Amino acid sequence: MPELPEVETIRLGLEKHLVGHKITDVEIKLRKIVQGDEKNIIGGKVTGVRRFGKGLVIDLDNGYLLAIHIKLTGQLIYRKVSKGGKVSEVPKEEEKIKVIRGTYEVLPNKWTHVIFHLDKDASLYYNDFRQFGWIKIVKQEELQKLVFFKELGPEFFKDLTSEKFRDIVKKSKTVIKPLLMDQKKISGVGNIYANDGLFDAKIDPKRKANILSDKEIENLFTSVEKVLKLGLKLGGASELSFVNALGGEGKYQEHFLVYGQEGKPCPRDGSIIQKIALGGRGTYFCPTCQK
DNA sequence: AAGGATACCTGAATGC
DNA sequence: TGCATTCAGGTATCCT
Predict the structure, then answer these.
(1) What residue is closest to C10 (Cα–C1')?
(2) pLDDT tens readout for residues A50-71
(3) If both were cysteines, with which of A3, A44, A203, A258 could A190 make a disulfide (CB 3.0 to 4.6 Å apart)?
(4) Per 3-state DSSP, what percentage of chain A is helix, strand, and coil (rounded to 5)?
(5) What pLDDT sits at residue A85?
(6) Contact at 8 Å (CB) between A206 and A276?
(7) What is the Cα–Cα distance from A107 to A223, expressed in whole angstroms?
(8) Any catalytic annotation for residue A54?
(9) Is A166 helix (H, G, I), strand (E, B) or coil?
(10) How far is CA A204 from CA A16, A47, A182, A209, A246, in A?
(11) Catalytic annotation on A101?
(12) pLDDT at A84
């Protein structure tokens, strides 16, 4: 569920607040989350934050980087201890942050698995209640050796053109919805935006990719771009545990078209939205207007 | 090789 | 009521 818009929202926040900070210490509470030697990043200063699909890269000035995937429930939250009650958009010590659905906790909490201590009274917390995410500490030149980054397909707003998208769709023998979510084919799209994009394009998620017409493929490209753009504009979808780099919530969950809307009326024609499983994932669609 | 099924994990929702 | 089961999902891995 953290998909391109959510991860980009985090990246923008980290770029604004984290860049320029030096890592002074790393506290690892759950070892399996971190791979590589944390000693290699101590003393390193953050020079930039990049995103590839749903993956994040925090670049340091000492030749190392942090490659991060938050998977379903990871959170990266920046906090700076405010001195002298100065007004700041950065969360304060006592501020509670959404952990999962209706649960709010201060930092750190039982789901905080890694704490990066930074200079200038700041810290970066990694929380993850399902513990699926990972943080890899590697040398700059080793990023492209990481399987996840190496195998990523082209992505929307970057290197995926509508022509490339058409070729990928036409070549695939799978069902269109799982194809949209296959990171090796197209990166950045997950369950929420695949469901809503297909709805916007009026395409039945069960159809085989290679039988879609050129026009349908073009519409789908435009529709997926459209919902991704809206998701980013609204700061992502926070229905489960997504929060931005300052612990704030997004608003796209208030604008879901069909995702999670089983039993509710279709926003286009009022038919009841159905839920089925495709590729083992929840799939929501309108049975009458998605052909 | 591509595509499908399963594991990973835990809180919430559901079942009886 | 309370205990057990099911469900959610992005990869990683195994299997065909």
Answers:
(1) A71
(2) 999 999 999 999 999 999 999 9
(3) A3
(4) 30, 25, 45
(5) 54
(6) yes
(7) 38
(8) yes
(9) helix
(10) 40, 44, 18, 10, 37
(11) no
(12) 56
A206, A229, A275, A281: the catalytic one is: A281
The spacing between the Cα labelled CA in A174 and the C1' in B3, in angstroms, equals 8
Q: Is residue A249 over pLDDT 60? A: yes
Position A68 scores a pLDDT of 97
Nucleotides of B under 7 A from a protein CB: 2-13
Total-model pTM: 0.96
> What type of residue sits at position A237?
A
Nucleic strand B interface residues, CB < 7 Å: A 32, 100-103, 110, 129-132, 172-175, 178, 279-280
Q: Is A171 a catalytic residue?
A: no
Point out the catalytic residue in the list A11, A22, A54, A185. A54
Q: What is the pLDDT at residue A92?
A: 80
Residue type, A198: L
**Strand C close residues, chain A 87-126, CB < 7 angstroms:** none
How far apart CA A54 and CA A102 sit, in angstroms, is 25
Q: How far, in Å, CA of A159 to CA of A287, rounded?
A: 33
Yes or no: say if A150 and A16 are a contact pair by the CB < 8 Å rule.
no
